[in-house]
Amino acid sequence: MAGDELVLRGVVEPADPRDQELERLRRQNRQLERDLADAERAAERAREDAHRALSRLRQQLGPLYRALQAVFGELEAAGVEDQAPTAGAASGPSVDRTSAVWASWKAKLGAAGKLIDALLLHTEMNTQQLAMATGLHRTTIPKHIYTLNKAGLINKNGGRFSLKPLS
Q1: Quick one: pLDDT at residue 87?
Q2: Which of 11, 62, 116, 164 gives the lowest tally of CB atoms within 10 Å of its CB?
Q3: 3-class SS at 34?
Q4: Among 81, 103, 106, CA closest to 93
């Protein structure tokens, strides 16, 4: 037994370089997946931060905006016009009267007036779009739609809403 030695004979083949490349690519893929997940989380945080900042800005500027709308509505109702109209601006008694009427409604309706602004701008919207456009919570939109409907100002088309034309 002392003289018995086990001898292995054969050719040792070097490791296949494709296996090493495959493992390197797998590691790189896992790292890229982690980087993508991190980037997606960062983008979502940035969207949330931007939404919060814009909501705060809207909340802070909202009273001024509504006050100026009321002032300009009263000016238009009184027939006061700009001395030098801006290029391309719509003018005329019909546009002035329409703006004044909507401004008057918005002043009377409070928060529901935000829906009027959104619908004047976007023509037709659903509840979710109205919530996003106005900054109001989506659960309060039906109450405001009811208010506009009770005033006879809104058309319902399935799940979409638009303003009735002023006569």
Answers
A1: 44
A2: 11
A3: helix
A4: 81
Mind listing the pLDDT tens digit for each residue in 34-51? 999 999 999 999 999 999
Question: Cα–Cα distance between 119 and 117 in angstroms, integer?
Answer: 6
* Beta carbons within 8 Å of 128's beta carbon, 6+ residues apart: 138
Tell me the C-alpha distance between 56 and 95, whole Å: 32
Token pair belonging to 86: 């801006």
Domains, the chain, in order of start with CATH, read: 17-80+93-163 (1.10.10.10)
pTM of structure: 0.45
Asked whether 147 and 109 are in contact (CB, 8 A), the reply is yes
pLDDT beneath 50: ranges in the chain: 85-88
Structure confidence at residue 86 (pLDDT): 47
- Angle at alpha carbon of residue 131, lines to 126 and 99, rounded to 5°: 80
Please answer whether residues 90 and 99 qualify as being in contact, where contact means their C-beta atoms are separated by less than 8 angstroms: no
